[in-house]
User: Which sequence fits this backbone?
């Protein structure tokens, strides 16, 4: 049931993104990024002469990571999205972002979603989708796998979308990309981490525009190993990487693969397979790397390369 719920949530977010495609975009395929002032705290806005009269609760006291405390990512007359704090999630070995969502409208149920999230250049997946009734405020949370591959966040880039829940195919109320710099950092001093390396890795694609590295094979304990991959997008366009047409020791398998990587960033993927269980240790993986426009869900790839990996 949990897997089904995640799949349905993914499809709904994709539908919302498709419904927002009529907005004006720049040549890079996305709106200009908005830099979030991490000094703008909800608690401080009440005395600035611009109080909206809303009743969003103040950020609760307590510890937070990376200095992210009560950071208003977006606020206007319709809605507000705020990061209250960030804490360790021991169960999932990740970081939990506690957020407050506010619907200031009197007659609309609003849908809030967070799409792509990029921490220090590394793409991280999240499935965040919440609806808020008119005039209501709720708290929620989402996990990000912040760790060795990302380092402590200096730069967090996230796509935020807010739409009228009754009209998901209409123009969104908010659809933009926001950049948050943690304490002591700005665009001039952010340092992206070095790529993870392994002893038996192989760069199967390495051009001026894209890099794909097979880092190795991970034994899942369920008969079918995963292919551990690194994708790097060196262009100024958002793209989708996937592997397809997979054979393992000559037998065909369906690959569960597909990762969006925004311009100038990178990602790691564990690609799993569907097919007959593998006996023993596979000797040869053959597959095709396909790269397509991230904004076209069903678009044809504009880059294809056949690859071989022998562990």
Assistant:
């Amino acid at each position: 049931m949990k897997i089904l719920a995640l799949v349905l949530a993914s499809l709904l977010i994709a539908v919302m993104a498709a419904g927002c495609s009529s907005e004006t975009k720049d040549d890079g395929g996305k709106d200009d990024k908005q830099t979030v002032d991490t000094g703008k705290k909800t608690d401080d806005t009440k005395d600035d002469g611009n109080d909206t009269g809303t009743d969003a609760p103040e950020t609760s006291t307590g510890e937070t990571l990376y200095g992210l405390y009560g950071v208003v990512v977006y606020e206007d007359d319709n809605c507000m999205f705020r990061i209250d704090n960030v804490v360790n999630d021991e169960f999932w070995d990740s970081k939990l972002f506690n957020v407050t969502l506010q619907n200031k409208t009197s007659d609309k149920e609003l849908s809030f979603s967070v799409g792509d999230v990029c921490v220090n250049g590394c793409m991280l997946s999240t499935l965040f989708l919440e609806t808020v009734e008119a005039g209501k405020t709720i708290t929620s949370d989402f996990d990000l796998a912040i760790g060795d591959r990302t380092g402590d966040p200096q730069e967090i880039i996230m796509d935020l979308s807010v739409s009228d829940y009754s009209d998901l195919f209409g123009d969104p109320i908010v659809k933009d990309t926001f950049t948050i710099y943690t304490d002591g950092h700005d665009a001039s001093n952010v340092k992206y981490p070095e790529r993870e390396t392994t002893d038996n890795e192989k760069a199967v694609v390495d051009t001026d525009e894209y890099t794909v590295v097979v880092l190795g094979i991970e034994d899942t304990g369920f008969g079918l190993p995963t292919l551990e991959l690194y994708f790097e997008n060196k262009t100024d366009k958002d793209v989708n990487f996937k592997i397809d047409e997979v054979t393992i020791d000559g037998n065909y398998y369906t690959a569960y693969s597909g990762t969006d990587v925004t311009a100038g960033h990178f990602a790691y993927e564990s690609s799993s397979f569907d097919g007959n269980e593998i006996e023993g240790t596979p000797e040869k993986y053959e597959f095709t790397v396909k790269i397509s426009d991230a904004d076209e869900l069903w678009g044809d790839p504009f880059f294809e390369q056949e690859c071989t990996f022998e562990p």
Summary: The chain has a mean pLDDT of 84.
